[in-house]
Specification:
Number of helices: 2
Distance between the termini: 40 Å
Largest sheet: 7 strands, mixed
Strand content: 35-45%
Helix content: 10-25%
Shape: globular
Number of strands: 7
Order of helices and strands: EHEEHEEEE
Radius of gyration: 14 Å
Structural class: alpha+beta
Length: 122
């Protein structure tokens, strides 16, 4: 089962503010971003959350936050200050949105896979 989520609102939540700061910027697929000074690589992060202890929405939102944090960590490790063209992936199919992401629900897990390009912006 595939559902779309709105975990982007989690970035403004207390948990989101604790986990994310202004050192790495995020630009979703289709959003205008400044021209990069340097492009490092495309990075894919996949995260799953054990879902029986949460609602489907909570499990999907948690997986989204974890996948986005993995993109942030990859950007820091590469020396980038932004991740651009972020999109969801599922079985080699892209889901592009600036307000939603795709979450896969299984029997016991919810999973989110995000892909983005790590760049250095001015």
């Amino acid at each position: 089962l595939i559902v779309t989520g709105t975990g982007l609102t989690h970035l403004g939540s207390a948990e989101g503010r604790d986990r994310f700061d202004d050192t790495i910027r995020f630009y979703w697929s289709g959003q205008a971003a400044p021209a990069p000074l340097q492009t490092f690589k495309i990075h894919i992060s996949e995260r799953k959350t054990f879902s029986p202890t949460r609602t489907e929405r909570e499990a999907c939102d948690q997986s989204f936050v974890e996948a986005l944090a993995a993109l942030r960590d990859a950007a820091r490790a590469a020396g980038a200050n932004a991740v651009v063209e972020i999109k969801s992936l599922y079985k080699n199919r892209e889901f592009r949105s600036s307000t939603e992401f795709e979450c896969r629900l299984g029997y016991f897990t919810a999973g989110v896979t995000l892909e983005g390009t790590l760049v250095k912006l001015p």
